[in-house]
TrEMBL record:
This is TRAP transporter substrate-binding protein. Residues 1-20 form the signal peptide. Gene3D superfamilies: Bacterial extracellular solute-binding protein, family 7 (3.40.190.170). Belongs to the bacterial solute-binding protein 7 family. Keywords: Signal, Transport. InterPro entries: DctP_fam, TRAP_DctP, TRAP_DctP_sf.
Amino acid sequence: MRLAPLLLAALLAATGLAHADGPILIKFSHVVAPDTPKGRAAEKFKELAEKLTAGKVKVQVYPNSQLYKDREELEALQINAVQMLAPSLSKFGPLGLRQFELFDLPYIFPSDKVLYRVMDGEIGQRLFKQLEPRGMVGLAYWDNGFKHFSANKPLRKPDDFKGVKMRVQSSKVLEAQMRALGAQPQVMAFSEVHSALQQGVVDGTENPESNFYSQRMYEVQTHLTLSQHGYLGYAVVVNKRFWDGLPGEIRQQLGEAMRETTVFERQLADQENRKALEAIRAAKTTEIYLLPTADREVLRKRMLPVHTQFMDVIGRDLVLGTYKIAREVAANP
């Protein structure tokens, strides 16, 4: 989005730069529905932030791309038109932060336990350090669960993907993943996916259950394969100049609000994905197929070369470090 100079000036003037005369305003924008894990966590953060700061901070939440779409929101954050986002981890690659594409590699996280050790440990903090030169500070990693393939035909074996137009986020890794299966990747903003599926612009996509349900994709997709082939998570980020300009006590209180919210969000993501799957079943418009272990292994092997293709782009140490954590968890479950 190209912001006119006068509009930009007005937006900047309306932010926390003038908080001495009233509550500090945090505009928190995101692209998903309010009843998703991210949407509900944004509201939880608003509640906790305003409570813990005794009203010194006011959080305004804008869901469903009300302010900015996928391609616009990070630019808006960098110019302080909004102060906080929770973009999917795939969105950092197009900014040149290719290390974040670690999270896009197919089948790299065999379990939640491995995933959280990567996010909450040294690797996750190293990735957050990469954000600061781009004018952002990473506050937390939020979860939305593992992704599954959907289309208007069964997607169970590699041959089923041949020629299928699959929507992906803007990520070279995700594009390569689809090509490895013989599909045709189509980069598209999340807000446009339902209509694109309805109109046949794309044939299928990949999502956790909660996104599939909350965006009503079950109305326009006849088959859902529970493949758990990839991961969809978010990084909660804040404008660095805005964050650094806050009083230390406020930063501490907001940090505590974010820690509490993150615990809430991760538990909610698991619960909501389970509930969404049952709701999809109840709708009876989509055939749900649980991919057997043997068939999942066939898909994994077909997509495994993507790891090698991007290892040096992402960072060999990051990829191998994730492998090491997976081995450690397997040895001590």
